[in-house]
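Figure caption, in words: inputs first, then the predicted bound structure.
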Amino acid sequence: MALVRVPRSWEIRENLVTAESAYLNRRHFLKTTAAIGGSLFLNGGLQAESEEAVSDRDAVQALYPPEWNPAYRVHLPMTEEAVAGRYNNFYEFTTIKEKVYEVAQSFETYPWTIELDGHCENKGRFDVDALIRQFGIEERVYRFRCVEAWAMVVPWSGFPLHKLIDFAMPTDKAQYVCMYAFFRSEEATGQKKQNWYPWPYFEGMRLDEARNELAVMATGIYGKEMPVQHGAPIRLVVPWKYGYKSIKSVVKIEFSRRQPDTFWNTLSPREYDFWSNVNPAVPHPRWSQATELMIGSGERLQTLKYNGYRKQVEHLYS
Ligand code: MTE
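Bound structure (MTE present):
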């Protein structure tokens, strides 16, 4: 099915003329009624919309569990799903890792669009399900290393970021990529409570880093669609960098000529630099980065340069 471009701001769209909560509820109603009945009477326009939404949703759900790509494996035990899913950093909801799971559950992540903007030819807002359907997904097992010196090994589902970059068609001026997460402080109340943070969360990389084979737009984990606490419905995963670079719940990607600012670097430039490549030899100003604690097993391991992905990324920094 052809990829559907979501109309731009100057084109009439129902979510621009309807309160968002009403719009989301109506979409939920349409999906539900179509899923259970399929033949309930709706006027022509609404029916076309429901069929399209249901078919993309159904098609995407049917992609799980995706096939594992054996080129991306880790010779360490996998972190248990329940452990990884109950210990999260997602400051939009709360700064208490053990509570994110609970607090984020009711956050609605469908429908969801990603806007492509800046120095690229194919600007616009695109439905994430349609993108997933076009690009397909695979499973990759990656190490994941947080700057706080804990780590995990998890199977992500998703597609390489370079597919989305090619789709966006960056121009010659594009040197960097900046990604933004959502801003919905009524539902994600951490955005209200921690109002000294420069919301929305934003992160950036050089364009050639973003094109690296390891950079993935993850849409799922443990063979299932992404749960909210891990960054539903779509997040970045760049496993050779500290975890905070792997921005969750992305709504916009912007191509720029200049190096963009980033969330943590804006907050504390001395502690969090733009590159943030995992490096055991460079301590954080407040703690060592030489070792890492595997969540779940409690094992302490030596941290590896580029988190063990030296072969794939070292050439980017020579
Ligand atoms: N993305 C957003 N939007 N908000 C966040 O607070 N936290 C980052 C990163 N992405 C964060 C984010 C940090 S600090 C880490 S370690 C990882 O998400 C944690 O990912 P996980 O909860 O899936 O393990």
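The radius of gyration is 20 Å.
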